[in-house]
Amino acid sequence: LALSDNSDDDGSSTPEGLHRRRSSTFVTYEIRPPSKTQSVPSNKNIHSKGNLSPKSQQSCPECQRRENVLHNEHERLLHVYNENRKLNEQLRLATLTNHQYQEENSKLKQHLTKMNTHLKEYQVNYDLLKDKLTLEKINQPKQNIPTDPIKRLRHELQIYNEVIAAKQQKEQEQIDYYSFQSWTPKK
Asked: Locations of Acidic residues compositional bias (predicted)?
């Protein structure tokens, strides 16, 4: 702590004289630059130096109390700073994880939409094939249906295999169409 004298004039009238001394109403503190090992400036760098008034010498216990309070606050702020840094890192990691989950969720929603579309098409095709098979059975003359149970089962199995083959061919055409759509560059 350095107190200046009451002189506002240093006796020079040159432009350099514009830098006058401060009056005794101002208090100047000398602050040393923090060392590289400290992350927050320490309050221990504020020392009483120079001419001390009798009043400041008498309040030495008060100064010590202030230094203790400043030291405790400094320690508390360091603790809060470290806690804040940890919480910020946790927030950053949680935000990144959340962003990844959102991207994966949107991809899954797109895939689900495609699968629902395919499922609806399969249901429509299945119903059409079922109706077609029913109509073929109704319209088929009774003479062509074998009376022997084994021949009749073979005939039904043959019709069933034909329906399955037609359905698989239709599905393969749709898969080829959609895979071509997904690999085609979008304009």
From this structure: 1-11
Q: Report how far residue 168's alpha carbon sits from residue 174's, in angstroms, rounded to the nearest whole number.
A: 10
Give residue-wise pLDDT tens across range 151-176.
Answer: 878 888 888 899 989 888 888 888 77
Nearest CA to 44 out of 30, 58, 57, 56 is that of: 30
| DSSP structural state of residue 5 | -
Map tokens 């350095």 to a residue: 2
More confident residue, 58 or 87: 87
The 10 Å Cβ neighbour count of residue 98 is 10
Q: Are 23 and 6 in contact (CB under 8 A)?
A: yes
Query: What percentage of the chain reaches a pLDDT higher than 70?
Result: 59
Distance CA 148, CA 159 (A): 17
H runs (alpha helix) in the chain: 54-58, 60-139, 149-183
Which residues touch 56 (CB under 8 Å, ≥6 apart)? Answer: 1, 48, 63
Look up tokens 């000398």; give the residue. 30
